[in-house]
Amino acid sequence: MENLILEYQLLKEEIRQKIEIYNSLVSFTITTSVAVLTYALSANKTILYLLPFGIIIPMSMRIAYYKLSIAKLSAYIIVFIEKKTVGLKYETRNRHINTKKERGLLRFIIFKDYECLILSITTYLLYVLSYIKNKSVSLDFHLLWPLSFVVYEYIVMRKIRLIDKDKWIKKWAIVAHEENQG
């Protein structure tokens, strides 16, 4: 039992560290993107508006990694520790509350996990406004290709939103079952 409690404490600490890194990545992405956009605005060079995508896209992939890692650790705790102990049930209870709470419109209103997508859309719109400022409005290659960055970011955001802790609970349960059989 002592080993389970120690493992629980270590895993909860690892989750806490990953949450801190996740929050730092989000803050870094927002801060640096806004700084680059501010510079692009003051420099009045259209191409500079695309630079934040070089920050947003790699950071969103790291953010997705940490979200997935947190879900996997939490699922592990539920399967291997909380099912074997009486008092340690935080992850199970938290999962139950979050599953009920985040349905429908509330999920969108709080913009949880949408930071990089919003930055991408803002970056693209500022690029478009700068591009068409001195040109006639027409859909040409220079307006359309940067849209692929926004689409890519939307795909990453959807993957983050679709991280399913229940799927990882099932996978860990299979591992636990196989260990018990062997």
Number of strands: 0
The tally of helices reads 8
For the termini, the CA-CA separation is 21 Å
Mean pLDDT figure: 87
Give the proportion of residues in helices.
Answer: over 70%
SS-based structural class?
mainly alpha
| Low-confidence blocks of residues | none
**Beta-strand percentage range:** under 5%
Q: How would you describe the shape?
A: elongated
What letter string, H or E per element, gives the SSE order? Answer: HHHHHHHH
**Compute the gyration radius: what is it?**
21 Å
Largest sheet: none
Describe, in plain words, how this protein is organized in 3D.
It is a single chain. This protein is an all-alpha fold and 182 residues long. It contains eight helices and no strands. The protein has helices at 2-43, 53-81, 90-101, 105-109, 115-132, 141-144, 147-161, 165-181. The protein is elongated, with a radius of gyration of 21 Å. The model has no long low-confidence stretch (mean pLDDT 87).
Keywords for this entry:
182 residues; 78% helix; mainly alpha; elongated
In summary, what is this structure?
The protein is mainly α and 182 residues long.
Blueprint of the fold:
Layout: H1 2-43, H2 53-81, H3 90-101, H4 105-109, H5 115-132, H6 141-144, H7 147-161, H8 165-181
Helix pairs in contact: 1-2, 1-5, 2-5, 2-7, 2-8, 5-7
